[in-house]
Design a protein that fits this description.
alpha+beta; nine-stranded mixed β-sheet; Umud Fragment, subunit A; 2 domains
Length: about 230
């Protein structure tokens, strides 16, 4: 017999396999978390279009969630999966570009005077980025941090933006997240191997360029920035 309780029992089993939470599924589906909890708590089956999105998000079919019957994989089109850095799998909607889910560190990096070194605490959330932003980068190395300050406005990195960087990835000149004298910053680095020096540039004329030896122990290059999520301030 088909029951609403069975729908949510099968849903719970599936998200445990994927190591997902209801909150994460609600975000993927585009349903408010409160509405999602109301459905599951009261054993209500969502509207048809919402049920379809839920099934896609957790890699199964509405038929299975409703009836418990396995759908025939040979009759279904292959489902393109997205692997997050922590190994979780996600199913994109039709015609979407492949994306990655990147964890957000609790610390903010400064595009100004800096903050403390990144702590080894739990992530505070996730941000989704286009997969091609990190082409050639190990997805497991990606981490996102919020920006404060205005020293990088010349390249359109503003207060409140989210920069995504590849930890321990260093490859030629570019924008990096660094720790300098214990302060966490996002800056443009210029490596001058012949002089054995690194020039730390801001992208705002109000800030001066810093110059330090390559072997300076007070500089830790956290990783290269692969992109940022920009919220225009005007």
């Amino acid at each position: 017999m088909i029951t609403m309780i069975g729908f949510w029992e099968r849903f719970e089993t599936q998200i445990k396999v994927l190591s997902l939470t209801k909150k994460e599924v609600a975000a993927l589906v585009g349903i408010s978390y409160g509405t999602f909890v109301n459905y599951s708590t009261n054993n209500r089956i969502p509207k048809t279009e919402e049920a379809v999105r839920i099934a896609k998000a957790i890699g199964t079919s509405v038929e299975y969630l409703v009836s418990g019957e396995e759908f025939d994989m040979e009759q279904e089109e292959p489902i393109t999966q997205i692997r997050a850095p922590n190994g979780r799998m996600f199913i994109p909607h039709d015609n979407e570009e492949p994306t990655l889910l990147v964890p957000i560190a609790p610390q903010r990096v400064s595009a100004g005077y800096g903050q403390e070194f990144l702590p080894t605490s739990e992530y505070v959330g996730y941000v989704r980025i286009l997969e091609r932003m990190a082409r050639g980068i190990n997805p497991a190395s990606l981490i996102a941090v919020s920006v404060k300050g205005d020293s990088m406005t010349g390249v359109q990195i503003f207060e409140g933006d989210m920069v995504i960087f590849a930890q321990n990835h260093i490859s030629e000149n570019g924008i990096y997240v660094i720790s300098l004298y214990g302060d966490l910053k996002v800056k443009r680095l210029e490596f001058r191997s012949g002089e054995q020096r690194i020039f730390i540039h801001s992208e705002n004329s109000r800030y001066s360029t810093e110059e330090i030896p390559m072997n300076n122990d007070n500089l830790v290059i956290m990783g290269k920035v692969v992109g940022w999520v920009h919220c225009h301030p005007y």
